Amino acid sequence: MTEFFQNIPKITYEGPASDNEFAFKHYNPDEVVMGKRMEEHLRFAVAYWHSFAYEGGDPFGGRTFARPWFGEGMAKAKMKADVAFEMFDILQAPFFCFHDADVRPEGADFAESKRNLEEITDYFAEKMEGSKTRLLWGTANLFTHRRFMAGSATNPDPEVFAYSAATIKSCMDATIKLGGENYVLWGGREGYETLLNTDLTREADQAARMLEMVVEYKHKRGWKGAILVEPKPQEPSKHQYDFDVATVYGFLKRYGLEGEVKMNIEQGHAILAGHSFEHELALATSLGIFGSIDMNRNDYQSGWDTDQFPNAPHEVALAYYEVLKAGGFTTGGTNFDARIRRQSLDPEDLILAHVGGMDMCARGLKAAAALLEDGRLEANRAARYADWGRPENADMLDHGDLEGIEARVLADAINPEPRSGRQERLENLVSRFI
């Protein structure tokens, strides 16, 4: 045991009446919701990077956190892992997620970085033998190091492309070895700062080829997990090629990959793209590419990706409404891609941020399930489109042409009047469950 989380108890469910801040008020892992345990619905994951690699910096200031594992070398990396698994145990977290750069020190070259990743992967495997926590997904950090300043797969330098491909392979190997259920690709630098030096066609072709190789390697290894792409519109690049769900789907269709790749959708990224979280989830479901979520929120006054823990009941409930409508998670889950504020210095802050986030998601899930079981929202939606079920209207959509439709409008003297969309009434209905 380390001393970092000393005197912090294991978090258990005590119910809404509890005044103990080190207890769940709404997240009861064993509570059955729509025929399934809450833990199995939500599939919580702790983000290794925000919880253990983030130093408390921002664009205008450096490290504020004092963590005993900050520093170079494998000994520090293993201490970080010890602390991480202690936190997983305190929270009883089912899963965690990581980038390679979060868990191993950077080597002098790729070979040393790979050895470091393999060593920490073996250490993780040992830790997991005595833990309930499994790996939801792994990924490669192809954006922090200066070599990736012009992208990884989209880089104009073939050697950076090659380095990126090798890094992805090593991270996929680690993910597979640890029993990970998904592998995520986020193109943090896959975009451009100016069109003056950018060949859009070439960069798209390179990105597609890298993704094709990832899919090919998955099948070569016989791995049954999901390949996920995480959209984001900008930041750090001015414009990123994985702007939103619709953009990524268009890219997948363009290169014939829509049957191989699904989406890992983040609340904060959806907001940066000008969408709501539930819009992105509903669209991914409609397109058949919904996979997993990163749960967080942005500060709506700041205009950038602040990665805060969720605390808005309506937003969370509407998100899980779409998840439940999609049939729930399969390999995916709820990853807290969220970090504590740079002034939240204490170990307790890190634990309690997750407790609050898990409780908020549990509240949202229960509200979403009750709303779905109530059925009135879906009944109103179905009623709005009910006339399309009439034979003459279904035939118009399936077999009609402009001439025939014009003749029908004239013959039947069709002169439609607008119908209410009932938005406020439906918003009131939703609010009753939240």
Q: Can you tell me about this structure?
A:
With 434 residues, the chain is α/β, with parallel strands linked by helices. The protein has 2 domains: 12-374, TIM Barrel, CATH 3.20.20; 386-432, no CATH class. Helix content is 46%, strand content 11%. The chain contains 16 helices and 14 strands. The protein has helices at residues 38-42, 48-53, 74-91, 100-103, 110-129, 158-177, 200-221, 245-254, 267-272, 277-287, 313-325, 347-374, 376-384, 391-399, 402-411, 423-432; strands spanning 12-13, 23-24, 32-33, 36-37, 44-47, 95-99, 134-139, 182-185, 191-192, 226-229, 239-240, 261-266, 290-294, 334-336. The strands form 4 sheets. Strands 5-6-7-8-10-12-13-14 form an 8-stranded parallel barrel, surrounded by 5 helices. A hairpin with a 2-residue loop joins strand 3 and strand 4 (36-37). Helix 5 (110-129) runs parallel beside helix 6 (158-177), helix 6 runs parallel beside helix 7 and helix 10 packs parallel to helix 11. It is globular and about 80 Å long. The model has no long low-confidence stretch (mean pLDDT 97).
> What is the C-level CATH assignment of the largest domain?
Alpha Beta
Tally of helical runs: 16
Task: Trace the largest sheet across and list its strands.
Answer: 5-6-7-8-10-12-13-14
Q: Please name the fourth-level CATH homologous superfamily of the largest domain.
A: Divalent-metal-dependent TIM barrel enzymes
From the spread of the alpha carbons, the general shape counts as globular
Major sheet description: 8 strands, parallel, barrel
